[in-house]
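Worked example 2:
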Amino acid sequence: MGIKVALQTLHGRELGLVGETTGLLGRMLPIGDHRFPMLRYIDPNGNTIFNGEQMYPVLEDLDRLAEGISCEEGKSLLAQIRELAIHCRDHPHEFLRFIGD
């Protein structure tokens, strides 16, 4: 099972979900890499939650990560996550949750 990314309300209602079962996202994420000030903190085994104000640097990290990805499946996955992140940025009281294994 892979890492899922959910767009959620303040009360936990799911508004969108990007999920995959191959583990691709877990292999792509720059966990612990200091060049990615936000994505490096994602816990692959737990939950990591970002709020709307944090979406600006999260989006920068996603764009930087996408530049280094060559496979179309990976680019598509990051594009889907980016769409959720933009929605989160533009709507107060919504959160982006990375749900680890």
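The chain has one domain: 4-99. The beta strands are 4-9, 14-18, 47-51, 94-99.
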